TrEMBL record:
A matching Pfam family: DUF2141
Domain of life, per lineage: Bacteria
Protein name: DUF2141 domain-containing protein
InterPro entries tied to this protein: DUF2141
Length: 216
């Protein structure tokens, strides 16, 4: 009976407390549940993945920019090295032939004769589109001879004599020259200017003589 009085069992909030005099002993609680542990693990994994994603998101543009910069530097360096080490190819020499242009029947023995040389069909007789321009003074003669080296190919010559020494080709209101003029192959235009094909001659290796008369 004494033991029954000293030992009293009481049940509170789902667990038992054993009391014996001044000593009180409480049963320990059980470990956390399995579901709580799994949830915590999933949360940690999610946080780690989010951190790696943010790092990747912010560092990728920087890495790409650095790679592009390195590629640009390598390309520029290669270009500089190529320009430094590769000499420019020397242009091929153009084959030329000697052509002697003889102009006869000059109206003036003093006025300057202008000879316009063309080797491009579409430029023929267009203002300022000649390939070569030569000035020759007759020096008291009605005939001049002009030796000139021309690249091989098709050429045409138009010439005028500046009888009033104004350094112009004087024309009337129809655009027809009022000063003496002539063309290679001695073409005599009537109503329109001649075509390149009418006046052309071939320059190819051997020396050539082109005779043009200014007699109308």
């Amino acid at each position: 009976m004494v033991l029954a009085i000293l030992r009293r069992a009481s049940t509170t909030a789902g667990h038992e407390t054993y009391s014996s005099g001044l000593v009180s002993t409480q049963a320990p609680e059980g470990p956390p549940g399995l579901l709580a542990g799994v949830s915590f693990l999933i949360l940690r994994v999610a946080v780690l993945w989010a951190a790696w994603f943010l790092i990747f998101l912010f560092t990728t543009p920087i890495l790409l920019s650095m790679m592009s910069f390195q590629v640009a530097l390598l390309s520029a360096g290669s270009a500089v090295v190529s320009a430094w080490t590769t000499p420019n190819a020397a242009p091929r020499p153009v084959a030329t032939s000697l052509v002697s242009v003889i102009v006869t029947d000059l109206p003036s023995t003093k006025a300057t004769v202008k000879l316009y040389f063309y080797n491009i069909k579409d430029n023929f007789l267009k203002r300022g589109s000649y390939t070569l321009l030569k000035y020759v003074k007759p020096a008291g003669s009605k005939q001049i001879t002009l030796p000139v080296d021309l690249p091989n190919g098709e050429w045409a010559v138009a010439l005028t004599q500046d009888t009033n020494n104004n350094d112009l080709v004087d024309k009337n209101f129809l655009g027809i020259p009022t000063e003496p003029y002539a063309f290679s192959n001695n073409v005599r235009p009537t109503l329109a200017a001649p075509a390149f094909d009418e006046c052309k001659f071939m320059v190819s290796g051997a020396a050539k003589v082109v005779t043009i008369s200014m007699k109308k």
